[in-house]
Design goal:
The chain is α/β, with parallel strands linked by helices and 390 residues long. The chain has helices at residues 12-21, 39-49, 62-69, 80-87, 104-112, 122-139, 148-156, 190-193, 203-211, 213-226, 263-272, 286-289, 303-314, 318-334, 342-355, 367-389; strands spanning 2-7, 28-35, 53-56, 75-78, 93-96, 116-119, 143-145, 165-172, 233-237, 243-249, 254-258. It has three domains: 2-145, 3-Layer(aba) Sandwich (Rossmann fold), CATH 3.40.50; 150-261 and 282-289, no CATH class; 315-389, RNA polymerase sigma factor, region 2, helix turn helix motif (Rna Polymerase Sigma Factor, Chain: A), CATH 1.10.1740. Helix content is 46%, strand content 15%. It is globular, with a radius of gyration of 20 Å. Bound molecules: NADPH dihydro-nicotinamide-adenine-dinucleotide phosphate (NDP). NADPH dihydro-nicotinamide-adenine-dinucleotide phosphate (NDP) binds at residues 8-14, 35-38, 57, 97-99, 102, 120-123, 147, 199, 201-202, 204-205, 263. NADPH dihydro-nicotinamide-adenine-dinucleotide phosphate is lined by residues 8-14, 35-38, 57, 97-99, 102, 120-123, 147, 199, 201-202, 204-205, 263.
């Protein structure tokens, strides 16, 4: 029986992971399930799956969680330290699907323990890629990509030599505003930005898809995960979202990964790696689909892509600044403080402000430095937000 944990269990990726696990209850011992606000879902799944412990990120919800778990045999805990402690419990595999930089500390705790980490939480790789990879190397744990693009690249590289790779192409649906006139983007509403044409995902990543900040994070994630140079990574707009990524080799071959837009494919691949197992996802009928289309991304429409390239060139802790500024700008858009197109401006200003302060961006990458940089960038971003909103 494999011992597994699901962090961010109440979210979109977490629920898709539970969907797969619940089909074979005899194969898994669930160690920890975690969530934040959705105590009802967390307790229901913990009971159903017989989890050893359920953790909410919010201290003030501990009594609610205890109440919901009464008589179940599942332990209840709350807060950041409890998340890290639960991640450090012996397990074979942990799904890291918390949204945002909050996923970093639990992910690192699992890696330190030698637990294979299925990584949906791209933000932790963007903030602290070198630290995550170094920690995994030291403990012998594997980092298994769950983002569909990175899972696709990972699969295309099986049996290949990375030195034969010339380029990596990650695709983007283009999100909610792909075909909108650029001049209309400034007036895009929260409801419009929160609806994705192809994927059913959490609200934050859906808005990040519309702004391409999601693809920007994925550019950095590609660089960190596969160790390729920034100029070897391309983004291609592919509205059908069926090809998730392509790897170009030095003999001119392009290996494309084609699959339905269903995260259970990438989750299942990471769950069963290095084997392939039958998964409950749609089988594509390419004749019925008829055609696949591609276009180059426009950096005027999506300035996040340009910013990500600058961050990759800078390296070090620039990813942590970028992610924190992006998360704060997104909070500002969700709260109605700034408009949709202002998010990129906030991020750019924070990057400029912090790069003007020597000693921050190129500091050694430790968890403390990353957390400090994250806090500093959020502080600057809040300042920029209040000035722009005012
Ligand atoms: P959701 O918003 O649906 O879920 C987020 C999860 O994190 C929930 O369990 C939520 O708890 C929990 N959470 C929220 N804030 C905190 C916090 N401060 N500390 C601890 N836990 C917290 O997100 P998604 O499932 O869409 O995305 C999760 C991650 O996976 C993100 O990094 C995203 O970029 C990545 N990803 C998602 C894809 C998708 O298809 N959804 C595709 C590829 C990557 P609660 O709901 O109880 O408040």
């Amino acid at each position: 029986m494999r011992r597994i944990s699901i962090f961010g269990a109440t979210g979109s990726i977490g629920q898709n992971t539970i969907d797969l696990i619940a089909r074979e209850p005899e194969a898994y011992q669930v160690v920890a399930l975690t969530g934040a606000s959705n105590i009802g879902q967390l307790a229901e799944d913990a009971r159903r799956l017989g989890a050893e412990i359920a953790v909410t990120a919010h201290d003030h919800l501990l009594d609610d969680l205890r109440g919901a778990l009464r008589g179940s045999g599942t332990e209840a805990a709350a807060g950041q330290a409890a998340l890290v402690e639960a991640a450090a419990r012996p397990a074979d595999w942990l799904m890291s699907a918390i949204v945002g930089a909050a996923g970093l500390a639990p992910g690192l705790a699992a890696l330190r323990q030698g637990t294979h980490l299925a990584l949906a939480n791209k933000e932790s790789l963007v903030c602290a890629g070198q630290l995550m990879l170094r920690t995994a190397r030291e403990s012998g744990a594997r980092l298994l990509p769950v983002d569909s693009e990175h899972s696709a690249v990972f699969q295309a590289l099986v049996g290949e030599d990375i030195s034969a790779v010339e380029r990596v192409i990650i695709t983007a649906s283009g999100g909610a505003f792909r075909d909108w006139p650029i001049e209309d983007l400034a007036h895009a509403t929260l409801a419009e930005a929160s609806s994705h044409p192809n994927w059913d995902m959490g609200q934050r990543i859906t808005i990040d898809s519309a702004s391409m900040f999601n693809k920007a994070l994925e550019l950095i994630e590609t660089r960190e995960y596969f160790g390729v140079r920034p100029d070897q990574i391309e983004v291609l707009v592919h509205p059908e979202s069926l090809i998730h990524a392509m790897v170009g080799f030095n003999d001119g071959a392009l290996m494309a990964h084609v699959g339905p837009p269903d995260m259970r494919h990438a989750i299942g691949y990471a769950l069963h790696w290095p084997e392939r197992r039958i998964l409950p996802v749609q089988r594509l009928d390419l004749a019925a689909i008829g055609q696949l289309t591609f276009r180059a991304p426009c950096e005027t429409r999506w300035p996040a892509l340009r910013l990500a390239r600058e961050v990759m060139e800078t390296g070090g802790l620039a990813g942590a600044v970028f992610n924190a500024a992006k998360e704060t700008a997104l909070d500002g858009f969700i709260a109605g403080q700034i408009g949709f197109t202002q998010m990129a401006g906030v991020v750019e200003e924070v990057l400029d402000r912090i790069s003007a302060r020597p000693g921050h961006i190129d500091a050694t990458m430790t968890l403390d430095n990353v957390v400090q940089t994250d806090h500093l960038a959020r502080q600057e971003a809040r300042d920029v937000l209040s000035k722009r909103a005012g």
